[in-house]
């Protein structure tokens, strides 16, 4: 999937969770959504022609050489391990929330990549087998449609959060 779809997946994840954080200051939602945005494109750092890969040339090239594409950096088990480790860190609460946002953004990336033909190595490094839940080709018409749907959901969710509309029932009034 391309970075536009991933970013919209990250926004959706960020907006959903911040809509559930009732009575918390706007800065906490901002930290979480910001983290989710970064996380949503982060795994593709293992591919140097990806959006984030082009921004981080040397780092991306090195990671690709060492870890390959859609292997370690697309491995849910690795992120689960890092997530558990970071949850126990004694750091600023807001920063921790931002990190949580990053992990949820990464999760949205991994779920979206699972719907591509190439699939995702859900159990890497225990198994190299890639699991595919869909037949979406990167940059295809089908991906454009999916991206469009995500954009629409995000707009409605944002309007719901601002109490301009009330379409989604999971957003508290
Ligand atoms: Zn990816």
UniProtKB/TrEMBL annotation:
Residue runs in coiled coils: none
Q: Which residues cross the membrane?
A: 26-45, 77-96, 102-124, 145-171
Q: Which InterPro entries match?
A: YdjM-like (IPR007404)
What molecular functions are annotated in GO for this chain? Answer: hydrolase activity
Q: Which domain of life is it from?
A: Bacteria
Which terms are listed as keywords in the entry?
A: Hydrolase, Membrane, Transmembrane, Transmembrane helix
Protein name in the entry: Inner membrane protein YdjM
* Source organism (scientific name): Clostridium chromiireducens
